[in-house]
Amino acid sequence: MPTGSPKYETAEALQAKIDEYFAGGYRKTKRVIGNKKDGFKEIEVPDITISDLVIFLGFCDRTSFYDYEKKEAFSYTIKRARSFIEREYEGLLKLGNPAGPIFALKNFNWKDKTEQEITTKNPPKIEISFTNAAPESN
Q1: Is 78 within 8 Å of 70 (Cβ atoms)?
Q2: pTM, full prediction
Q3: 66, 16 contact by CB (below 8 A)
Q4: Domain boundaries in the chain?
Q5: Which pLDDT tens digit goes with each residue over 91-125?
Q6: Residue 86 · residue 108 · CB < 8 Å
Q7: 11-106 maps to which CATH number?
Q8: Residue 95: what are its φ and ψ, rounded to 5°?
Q9: Which residues contact 73 (CB under 8 A, 6 or more apart)?
């Protein structure tokens, strides 16, 4: 494909390839879950990530993939795919060590802190005065 040509001509073509990925085009990883009291077991977990999707779709990097989101015709398709991946990370929060999924969700602009902005119509006036007093000598 020549440089500068679009990877996908239509949102439908892109959506079809994304559907193929979510239908099983992703990798799977074995993980051990559980604890000493209840026991451990090995499960196979879908390894669904933005990077894996980007490679599966044939893009060279995430930036190229995200550039499609800026195109009106592709915006919904890209946002929806990202939401599916966010959902996967949310599910991983329930499996043992959540550090990795928390990090990934922060890259989706999730925050683990609260921020408050307090405003008032009539803020109190605060007066500050400075004096230049000489120190007392003994």
Answers
A1: no
A2: 0.62
A3: no
A4: 11-106
A5: 777 766 677 777 666 766 667 777 777 777 777 77
A6: yes
A7: 1.10.132.80
A8: -105, 90
A9: 10, 11
